[in-house]
Amino acid sequence: GRKSKATMFWLWPPFGGGGDDVSSSMFFTFTAGAFSHAETLERFQTLRVQGDDHLLPNTSDMFFEVATRIESAPPNPDEDDDNTVVEETKDDDPSRPTLLAFGHKIMETHEGGVNSRRSVLTYIASGAFGDVYSVMCHATQEQEAMKMVRLTDPEDGSPLPDAERVRRLRPHVREAHIMTKLGAHPNLVGLKGAFLISNDFYIFLELMEGVTMLRNLISTSWLSKLEHVAEIALKSARGLDFIQQRGFTLWDFKPGNVLVALHPRDHSTIQTTEEASPFNALGQCFPLVCGSSTIEESFLVKITDFGTVTARESGECLGFTPQYASPETHALCSTGGRAGDVEDAAATQDAWSLGVVLLEMIRGKSCTWNDHVGARLALGTMEPELSSSRGLYLSIVRRCLDEDAQKRPAMATIIEDIQAAFESCFAAVGGESTPSLSPDDAGMLHDQVGGAFRYQLAGSEEDLELAGHHFREDVRIQEEAYGSESSQYAIAMSNLAGLLHAQGDFDGAKPHFERTIEIFERRRGPDHPNVATSLNNLAELLKAQGKYDEAKPLYERALRISEKSLGKDHATIAIWLNNLA
Hints:
The chain is of the alpha+beta class. The chain has 17 helices and 13 strands. Helix 11 (439-456) runs antiparallel to helix 12.
């Protein structure tokens, strides 16, 4: 009874872990009370990180998860669609995946059949999850970034066992859920679409040329301009403030999670004190995710990677990078993440990490785990490293990194301080547009995220509750866009009714199913297949309640409609006959 759309999701940035030196930067992830600080460190000693090192310009703030990384898997070898054109990678490394070729069509399942709205342009990178490409969306004539998450066995391309499939898929579904909860903001990377086809999950984000990670700019001459530092700090603070206003904590704000779209004139003039390119080891700027707006006298700044975001009321911390973590956040490793301790850490963690990032920009080098930046600032030992002009930034940094958490400023105050201290730097900065989705795309996104929680994961009570949130949002969007008598509204209502049925809320589900039947009969006629599906759904509900006499005529009518519209040999007829039996 579920509408035939797609299902999907993902995690950004697109790069897997790289390098063997985990001393300078590690990403903590733990379950409350699961293991001690000493056990955590012991686990890090035995980490095996898998990924594509040659795609990473440096590993100064890469994060490493305690959990085993997932290998990239090849596409399904049984795929024989004429649109499926693949080409092998240029090297002989068997661990590298088979790549999609230019022009490969990304097929989507919608109500009424399978079609393609996007095609591959270029390969960008690979990581432990799968591959990242730039694609063209033919409906909007805009380029997008596509992350392709493989859900197949790397050896033979067969579907993963259910438990492994859920384990691999859950973090991507969760992040997509968080991104829909956060909503759109000019300084946050946003979703464009997502769905499941066969054994691959896809997620689409905005894309534009000329974007690099902030970590690649830390040691460059480009950040010697105070207005560049100030603008990145301001826009990052705006994004973090938006996250906090929505009731969340990011936990892992760092230069590797900040994307900067440089003005074209900066690409040819940027200089670095290091041998490596400020962009990547290939000597070019990867077209990473960013917004589609253009600012003539400014540049775009967007925060990405929301895998660690948690609601403040949840009492959870999913992970952090040590050199950007406050003392309270570090202490969670030894306390086991007690709810009260997590709440205290969440209150100012993002302000602390913003202070560290601002400090890195004015120093021109990254902080390490052992820098103890807060203590060093308090002792005044860092000032000799800074020029007098850059020392002006220390007043803001000092407040963000105050050892007394109660004295750290709120993000809104940090924004005011940056604007007041560097007002002249922003005189030429224009407004930034907030990316938005059409009602169809926004509704589909909630439909697919909700569907993933209900159908693709383990189906726990929490999963079903999260599915309900997204299905209700889909209903709201369709009603606002098309009205409560539309087919779009009926489809969304049917999904919600099916979920309520699965949760045992029969009284809540029944009027939704009845309403769906009424709308489809009026909009599409009494003999339409959608009417048959809706009749079957209501009959299943009545059957679950033991109301067989009420269910039987509904099954029989659904069978007659399907035989008339689909033919007696159609596979759906077998389903209806089985339900009737």
